[in-house]
Amino acid sequence: MNQKTYFISVDMEGVTDVTAWCETEKNGEDYERARRQMSLETAAACQAILEAGHLAVVRDGHDYARNVLHELLPRGVKLMRGWACHPGSMMAGVDEKYAGALYVGYHSPAGTNGSPLAHTMNKNKVRWLKINRKIASEFTLNSLYAAQMGVPSIFISGDETICRLASGEIPQITTAPVKECRGNSTFNLHPADAIDLIKEKAAEALKNPAPLRPLPEEYVMEVCLTSHQSVRTALAHPAIRQTDDSTVSYTARSPKEVNVMFEYILQC
């Protein structure tokens, strides 16, 4: 059998039972419980890959990127920890050698009501992000970047809204929704049931992988910011223009350029 390697990008806000910001922050209430479940849901996807005879590399993509407990992952799985100062961000390290990308613990984007934790990269700065006039999530950014590297996105787990939005962008992607939003609350699968679902659906994705995501020729990125000063600061870049009091726009030619410019705007 031809052994392949798969890339797994992991976040925390889409993990079952995770409902409040304090659960996602180091030293916060119930953080240790949340990171353990994050690790076990990741381990389930890894196990599906290993049982299919392949290899898995995990990228911790949440907050300070040192959340996943490596000892809870199966033996043989490599874990990338910490930020690499790389335009791939949550996908740093992905390249053409990977047969596919899987996403665990992903969440609804800013501008939607799919989760009490809905955000896009920075909950304090971004009201919403659009690419080519459609709300974009972290999955949108990361799957586009993976596609630029020649890597198809084949599986996602997280809240019901991000799974639905991902299916709208990549109809053949396999999804594993582990919770739904009800106002500022979440309605969650039992942790063990979420683990079982992720392993089952990840195995399905390996058998019937989604094709490579098509890439448009240009990416009109609009970012609605929470601070007017951030808007003013972003305008120091000559290619960024202001479209209203709270929104700036930039037209990129590649997903990598989108990531670089979005990060620039976030620093403003």
Task: Explain what this protein looks like in three dimensions.
It is built from 6 helices and 12 strands. α1 (31-51) packs parallel to α4 (191-207) and α2 packs antiparallel against α6. Helices cover 29% and strands 25% of the residues. It is globular and about 50 Å long. The chain folds into 2 domains: 5-122 and 136-207, 3-Layer(aba) Sandwich (Rossmann fold); 219-266, no CATH class. The strands form 2 sheets. A 7-stranded mixed beta sheet has the order 3-2-1-4-7-8-9, with helices on both faces. The protein has a 5-stranded antiparallel beta sheet with strand order 6-5-10-12-11. The protein is α/β, with parallel strands linked by helices and 268 residues long.
Keywords:
about 270 residues, alpha/beta, 7-stranded mixed sheet, 5-stranded antiparallel sheet, Rossmann fold, 2 domains, about 25% strand
Q: How are helices and strands ordered from N to C?
A: EHEEEEEHEHEEHEHEEH
CATH architecture descriptor text of the largest domain: 3-Layer(aba) Sandwich
Q: Major beta sheet, specifics? A: 7 strands, mixed
Shape by Cα distribution: globular
User: What is the CA-atom radius of gyration, in angstroms?
Assistant: 18 Å
- Helix count, DSSP H or I runs of 4 or more residues: 6
List low-pLDDT spans: none
Total number of domains: 2
Distance between the termini: 50 Å
What is the fourth-level CATH superfamily of the largest domain? Dipeptide transport protein
Using the coordinates shown, work out and report the CATH topology of the largest domain.
Answer: Rossmann fold
Strand order of the largest sheet: 3-2-1-4-7-8-9
Residues in β-strands, percent: 25-35%
Averaging pLDDT over every residue, what do you get?
97
> Under the CATH scheme, which class of the largest domain?
Alpha Beta
| Number of strand segments | 12
Structural class: alpha/beta
The percentage helix is: 25-40%
